[in-house]
Amino acid sequence: MASNEELQAFQNSTSQTFFALYTDWFRQMKSQLRRIGLTHPQVQVLAALQELNLKEDEVTQVMVAKKADIDPMTASAIITKLARADYLDRFPGKKKARTKALRINANGQAHLDEALAILSDFEKDYWKDQNPNRQALIEAAKKSL
Questions:
Q1: Do residues 100 and 90 lie in contact, with contact meaning Cβ atoms separated by under 8 Å?
Q2: Which stretches make up the HTH marR-type domain (predicted)?
Q3: Beta strands in the chain (DSSP E)
């Protein structure tokens, strides 16, 4: 059984401070993206797909998962949902018959552009916000460094 000292050390640890700050940041960011019906992982996938579309002739799910730094199965589920929502197009690949190639479409590009603008504004506002609770989290994280 953990002692009171061990529990207090855990509660006051650097990892707990960063977790509290991340949780606050994530909740706020999620709320901002909810306005346009996207999640952060969906934005990651759309951004990775767009970047790859600019560089590659043919983009696959595996390439998107690697670029977005997410598990291939998770990427597959996100890509399927984005395709159903008409944010990207899937079509037979030229290199391998079984592979589906991906391309962001005009609707997906418009939503990605909007999401990137929202996230840019959010990042600026979040870190300069004068909310005392948030500032306390930020200061605690800085002290932990």
A1: yes
A2: 1-145
A3: 59-60, 88-92, 100-104
Instruction: Report angle CA 6, 7, 12 to the nearest 5 degrees.
Output: 100
Write out pLDDT tens, residues 19-36.
Answer: 888 898 999 999 999 999
Domain 14-144 has CATH 3.30.1240.10: no
Residue 76's closest CA among 93, 90, 86?
90
Length of the chain: 145
Collapsing DSSP states into helix, strand and coil, what is residue 6? helix
Confidence tier at 18 by pLDDT (50, 70, 90): confident
SS3 63: helix
User: Closest Cα to residue 62, out of 50, 51, 49, 43?
Assistant: 49
pTM, two decimal places: 0.83
Mean pLDDT (the chain) is 90
- Evaluate the CA torsion angle 114, 115, 118, 119 in order and state its sign: negative
Taking CA atoms, 2 is separated from 8, 10, 17, 126, in Å, by: 10, 10, 20, 36
Range ranked top by mean pLDDT from 9-13, 39-43, 99-103: 39-43
